[in-house]
Design brief:
By secondary structure, the chain is mainly beta. The protein has one helix and eight strands, in the order ββαββββββ.
Length: 108
């Protein structure tokens, strides 16, 4: 499995979701047609508020700010080691300006 870390996606304006975007070299690592096996979203340990994960504009997760070393995460995995998750359908929003989440993609 290939890991593609996208780094932190920060939200400059609360209430305005930021799409998950990839650079050209990252896109080149995706399985055709631009799909992945799994996507993971972890809140930044410096967050002070909740981040929300959206798929096609629908909220699928609400991740609170990490507390005492514990952080909740969101992941979506396609069945049976197939690459069937589109990173382009994901976006992140935050309750506090500058908060965000770390996004990692996995290609099988």
């Amino acid at each position: 499995m290939t890991c593609i870390p996208l780094g932190k996606i920060s939200v400059p304006t609360p209430g305005t979701p930021v799409p998950v975007t990839l650079t050209a070299p990252q896109v080149a690592e995706l399985a055709p047609p631009d799909m992945v096996h799994k996507i993971e979203v972890w809140p930044d340990t410096a967050n002070t508020g909740v981040i929300k994960v959206f798929v096609n504009g629908t909220q699928v997760a609400s991740l609170p700010a990490p507390n005492n070393g514990h952080a909740e995460a969101y992941q979506l995995t396609s069945p049976e080691d197939t690459n069937a998750v589109s990173p382009a359908s994901f976006s992140i929003d935050a309750a506090v300006s500058g908060n965000g989440g770390f996004v990692t993609l996995w290609v099988s």
